[in-house]
Amino acid sequence: MSEMNKSQAEAYWKANLRIVGGSLVVWFLVSYGAGILFADALNSIPVGGTGLGFWFAQQGSIIIFLILIAFYAWRMNKLDREFDVDEQ
């Protein structure tokens, strides 16, 4: 593990914010977009005996959240290795 200078720290923080921002956009689109805002339009697509909008509101958002957690952990570990601030 090495010390980062100010420009490296700023680059690390900006990359971190991009990852968080992208994850929040996906979270918003899935939870509010698919589950609430576009639910009526998505409900015309049948999935497992119910509409896709309902499925996203009940099951899809949970699955996507778990995928987002795994993606965030993977991407942050990769970012930590790139900036040599990983824990190993």
From TrEMBL:
A Pfam cross-reference name: DUF4212
Transmembrane portions of the chain: 20-42, 54-74
Alphabetized UniProt keyword annotations: Membrane, Transmembrane, Transmembrane helix
Residue ranges annotated for the Sodium symporter small subunit domain, each copy included: 10-86
Name the record gives this protein: Putative solute:sodium symporter small subunit
Species lineage: Bacteria, Pseudomonadati, Pseudomonadota, Alphaproteobacteria, Rhodospirillales
